[in-house]
Each structure stands twice: as C-alpha cells, then as structure tokens.
Amino acid sequence: MEVDETTSNIKKVFLVLSGKGGVGKSSVTTQLAFALYEKGFRVGVLDVDLCGPSIPKMFNLENGVINQSETGWIPVYYDNEQRLGVISIGFLLNSKSDAVIWRGPKKNSMIKKFMTDICWGELDYLLIDTPPGTSDEHLAVMENIKTSIYSNYSAILVTTPQNLSVNDVRREITFCRKVGIPITGIIENMSGFTCPHCKDCTYLFTKQGGKILAEKSNCNFLGAIPIDPNLTQCIEMGSEFLTSLKDSPCYSNIKEVVDKIIQ
User: Fold this and answer.
1) Mean pLDDT in the chain?
2) In this structure, are strands 10-17 and 123-129 parallel, antiparallel, or unpaired?
3) Which residues pair with 193 in a beta bridge?
C-alpha cells in the first residue's frame, strides 16, 4: 500500500468535540495546543469549523497564507521553528467578513482536502477543532480519519457546567460510541469565574456538571477550566497565555489537563 506522507508522521490525533455551541471548543483547542507546544511537542491545529473559523484569530495568524507544495498544502506556522502549525479555511477567505455558504457536499470535499492533503511533517499531536453538533462536518471527519492512516485518534469532549450543555454533550458521547471514536475524556470549561484581582473563583452557573457527566457515562474527567478575563484577553490577542498567566488558576488547570491526555 502506498503511504500518504502528509499524514504518516502524526503520532496522535485529538478531535475536540461538543454537541453544544458556545462552550469554548476553539479556546480549549488553543489552550491545549499552546500547553503541548510549551512542553516541547510538535503540534498541528486543524480547524474544520468551516462556517465559523476562529482559530486564526486565536493564534494571531489572521494574515497567514497557505502555500502549495508538490505534496500538498503547507500549514501556517506560529513560530520560526515550525513546531506549531495551523490550517483553517479562514486563511482561504478574501475578507474576514466573508461568509462560507456551502451545502454538505462542498463542505465534505474541503474537509477531505484538509484531512488528506496537508504537509504536516513530523507531528506529536494534531488537534482537530470541530463545529458543534453531529452533522455533515463530523461525519466527513470520521470517514476520512478512518480511510486514511490516522491510526491513533480519540475525542476530547468539552462542556460547560449547566445541564443544558451537559445534555447536548451526552448526545455527543452517543455519537462517538456509535461511530467508533474512543473518548479520551471530558473537560468542563467556564467552570466558575476567576477574579483577576483576588483570584477567588465564583460559580456563575452550576458546578461539576462535566464531572458528573463523566462519572455517569463512564468517561475520564480531564479537569475544569474557569473563566479568567486575562485568559480571554490573551486569546483575543493571540498570545501565549502560559507565559503570562502563571499566577492564574487556569495555568495549573490547563497543565493538569495536558498531563492527563499525554499519559
């Protein structure tokens, strides 16, 4: 069998999923990518949220350009060492205000291109940021991840604490099990509000919804990430929060999550 060099050197793939929109999948993907990068790993981020590509903004790469090589598209790199690469449809739009108004077949075709024709090189981890739900984009990712040679992949599910979100993520667990995606675990995002002055955490919603869901669904609970205005500002600016927020609870929480997923 001929080996596809664009995907053959990826050691582990994490699909970041949630049945609910607005839970912070893209921000969690960004945080995990930076934390893995800080540990010295080679990381790729693939944004398959075709209608809402926010990943370029979060990495401060909005002006990035995807180049073509003989073997496929070359990612936009965050650093000169080329240890953190990003692919997003956001790099292919003429304007930040352009809307992607595509039906399913065209979405599927673009996702196939993203999954099979990117020159990632050697990667320790590839994080795939997905849109909410269990629809065309997710099925296209599943079809391509199974027919190519991504041999080691699993899902990280993101929820917020309240029952409305937890119920939707429960459906995502059902989706993963039906299509045969192993689940690494569940992250509870926006788990309380961390005051930027006194560092106390106030629970704006309920709490431990993600942990309870993990226990009831027999999944690993990876940890809880609170709301921190400073973290939000870093993501808005596309800066590495781990170098500037070491006194934030987010710092230790994110590092704990990463330690669990790389075990």
Assistant:
1) 87
2) parallel
3) 202, 227
